[in-house]
Design goal:
Elements: E1 2-7, H1 11-20, E2 28-34, H2 37-47, E3 51-54, H3 63-70, E4 78-83, H4 88-96, E5 101-104, H5 109-160, H6 167-176, E6 184-190, H7 201-208, E7 218-224, E8 228-235, H8 241-256, E9 266-270, H9 275-300, H10 309-324, H11 328-346, H12 350-366, H13 377-381, H14 391-410, H15 418-429, H16 437-443, H17 448-459, H18 463-479, H19 486-492, H20 498-509, H21 513-516
Parallel strand pairs: 1-2, 1-3, 3-4, 4-5
Antiparallel strand pairs: 6-8, 6-9, 7-8
Helix pairs in contact: 2-3, 5-6, 5-9, 9-12, 10-11, 11-12, 11-14, 12-14
Length: 517
């Protein structure tokens, strides 16, 4: 039942309402009465009623002043004013105080019952809204937990970077580790099978336990994937920047004691745990590591590469000759031969294969007139080498870099703004991956609506059409290689079934994939 207090300086009116008021009919219980504003205010503060019925004109303190005084104390109470004064100023003040109902004297019991019933309905609606909010909050909490679990699963799949991931390990890590809001640090170095593979998270965690001021604030995951020794440090929410820097320094010192690969130890720290940021930073970290390994191998221990600089330069000059004479096919053949040579020398050491190919691509990009490393879309393609698993993928990646160099040299993109040019380069460089508008917008830190409008304005076609064009161009190149089936080519550029790929290709080129081949 709803608790009601009644405040009015008219004793006869009060006694009549006490005895004859529609309390039972409206699920109300009259808890107390007062005859002036000061007494009424004190009673309200003590009883905390659900409904306050009050007159306006009373001695000591009028009803509106009393309501204003107790609003902060009882924000959930409903106010019903019964007054004999029909003044605009009173009505205006009542609205400002968010009074629920106003009745003019003389008031009938029927009108009072209707007003109380209306207030009762307001209480029910509020309760329903609160229940709906609680239910929604529970669903949101559940969705958040499921989302964070999926994020952790994707994170460990990314770090494992294997074509057939160890699903049992991923599931174990997904359940074991939280997705801390304080950010993370990823440490990466080449996998030294003799000295590192036997080290695991327990060893590193025991070392970090020595630093008791930060040990409870972090979680550590360490493992060796196919090519790298990876340590991921997750920080708890609200961990201060100085503590994060301190933990990062101590972890680096611990890892440098592992094996003889410490000169290659690299790390990256992020202040949040958004998966797409982790993915981008991890890929860039691997790229930096492989570039560093290439140049260190070349200058410090070139014999480890087994591939002489003169041998590389011979193929390099052949590629440059083909580029200058616009003999694309000859350039592709030279690249293919180079990949086969490198693979033959370095198998089964996948790290060295990737490193040598990445180093060659650096030299290739630098060879173009007016192009410096890092200034072309070809540079953005180089991070693809850290995921190649076989000769086919290596050739595709080197072909893509070669095509991008040719496009840049032709100057076809000079009419575009820096952002649109970068977007076009990004699309061309990631044609086999996820290049949805939303992901691309996140990558360039702009809204998808802004990016879509800018691309349309400058190129004359929308973003999805550009993506389709690049995917079809990539498919045309792959169709030149008989070792790929048409179904495989469709899957490579993102089509899950042959029919969808056939229709898109036919519409774009006027030919079926088989006819184009």
């Amino acid at each position: 039942m709803y608790k009601v207090v009644l405040i009015d300086d008219n004793e006869i009116f009060l006694e009549s309402l006490k005895k004859n008021g529609p309390w039972n009919e409206t699920d109300c219980c009259l808890e107390g009465v007062a005859y002036d504003g000061i007494s009424g205010k004190k009673m309200i503060e003590e009883l905390r009623p659900d409904i306050i019925i009050t007159d306006i004109s009373m001695p000591e303190m009028d009803g509106l002043t009393m309501v204003e005084a107790i609003r902060k104390e009882c924000p959930g109470s409903k106010i019903l004013i019964i007054t004999g004064y029909d003044k605009f100023e009173y009505a205006q003040k009542a609205l400002q105080l968010k009074v629920n109902q106003i009745l003019l004297k003389p008031v009938s019991l029927h009108d009072l019952q209707c007003a109380l019933s209306a207030i009762g309905e307001e209480f029910k609606k509020e309760e329903e809204r609160n229940n709906n909010f609680i239910s929604l909050q529970k669903k949101l909490d559940l969705n958040k937990r499921n989302y964070e679990r999926e994020q952790r699963k994707r994170m460990f799949q990314l770090l494992l970077t294997l074509p057939c991931c160890d699903q049992a390990w991923i599931d174990k890590q997904t359940e074991k580790h939280e997705c801390y809001d304080g950010g993370y640090t990823i440490f990466v170095m080449p996998a030294d099978q003799k000295s590192i593979i036997e080290k695991d998270s327990a060893v590193i965690e025991s070392e970090m336990e020595k630093y008791r001021d930060i040990a409870p604030l972090i979680q550590i995951v360490s493992f060796v994937n196919s090519s790298y020794f990876i340590t991921l440090v997750l920080y708890k929410k609200y961990m201060r920047k100085d503590k994060i820097s301190y933990a990062e320094e101590k972890m680096r010192n611990i890892l440098r004691d592992f094996g003889d690969q410490k000169e290659y130890l690299l790390s990256v720290t992020c202040a949040d745990n958004h998966f797409y940021k982790m993915q981008d930073r991890y890929e860039k970290l691997i790229l930096q590591l492989e570039e560093r390994m290439y140049f260190l191998y070349e200058t410090v221990a070139g014999d480890q590469l087994k591939f002489s600089e003169s041998h590389i330069m011979t193929y390099f000059e052949t590629v440059i000759t083909n580029v200058k004479t616009s003999k694309y096919e000859d350039g592709v053949l030279a690249l293919d031969k180079l990949v086969e040579e490198i693979s033959q020398f370095y198998t089964p050491d996948l790290v060295l294969i990737r490193t040598a190919l990445n180093g060659f691509s650096v030299l290739l990009v630098r060879a173009f007139d007016g192009m410096e490393y890092g200034e072309t879309g070809a540079h953005g393609l180089m991070n693809g080498f850290n995921t190649v698993m076989n000769i086919k993928q290596a050739k595709e990646q080197l072909h893509a870099i070669y095509r991008e160099c040719l496009k840049q040299r032709s100057g076809e993109d000079k009419k575009y703004s820096a952002l649109v040019l970068a977007v076009l380069q990004y699309v061309r460089g990631n044609v086999y991956g996820d290049i949805s508008l939303e992901r691309t917008a996140r990558y360039f830190n702009v809204s998808s609506g802004y990016l879509s409008g800018l691309v349309k304005k400058e190129t004359g076609i929308n973003y999805n059409q550009i993506v389709l064009q690049e995917k079809i161009n990539a498919a045309k190149e792959l169709l030149k290689h008989p070792e790929y089936s048409i179904e495989e080519i469709g899957e490579k550029i993102g089509y899950t079934n042959y029919i969808s790929f056939y229709k898109a290709f036919k519409k774009a080129t006027g030919m079926s994939p088989r006819e184009c081949r």
